[in-house]
């Protein structure tokens, strides 16, 4: 909520990422990292795990990854004034 109020351009970008993530039928992954945090949020969408499951559920998987190596690598990519890293992958 604060991002959309104080950073409207970033808010619009996040909205586009989430719309693509929800409505596209391809597998995809969103990675969100906030500078100086010790965890990375991965939002993964895939129908493949559901093919062998009898459970009825949505194809969304959330992973909060606690990895110093990943966080340190991402932190190295920031320039002055940058605070968030968003990455999107679609197959």
Please describe what this structure looks like.
- This protein is of the alpha+beta class.
- The chain has one domain (25-90).
- The protein is built from three helices and four strands, in the order H-H-E-E-E-H-E.
- It has helices at residues 2-6, 8-23, 68-77, and strands at 28-34, 40-45, 60-65, 84-90.
- It has a four-stranded antiparallel beta sheet with strand order 3-2-1-4, with helices on both faces.
- The mean pLDDT is 87.
Topology:
Elements (H helix, E strand, L loop, with lengths): L1 H5 L1 H16 L4 E7 L5 E6 L14 E6 L2 H10 L6 E7 L1
Antiparallel strand pairs: 1-2, 1-4, 2-3
Salient structural properties:
4 strands; 3 helices; globular; 29% strand; alpha+beta; 91 residues
Q: How would you summarize what this structure contains?
A:
The chain is α+β, with helices and mostly antiparallel strands and 91 residues long. It has three helices and four strands.
Low-confidence parts: none
- Average pLDDT, rounded to a whole number, is 87
**Helix tally?**
3
Helix content estimate? 25-40%
The chain-level structural class is alpha+beta
Topology as a string of helices (H) and strands (E): HHEEEHE
Shape: globular
Distance between the termini: 29 Å
Tally of DSSP β-strands: 4
């Amino acid at each position: 909520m604060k991002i959309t109020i104080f950073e409207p351009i970033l808010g619009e970008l996040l909205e586009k990422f989430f719309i693509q993530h929800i409505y596209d039928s391809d597998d995809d992954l969103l990675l969100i990292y906030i500078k100086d945090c010790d965890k990375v949020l991965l939002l993964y969408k895939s129908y493949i795990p559901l093919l062998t499951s009898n459970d009825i559920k949505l194809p969304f998987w959330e992973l909060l990854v606690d990895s110093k190596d990943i966080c340190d690598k991402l932190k190295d990519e920031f320039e002055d004034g940058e605070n968030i890293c968003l990455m999107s992958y679609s197959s």
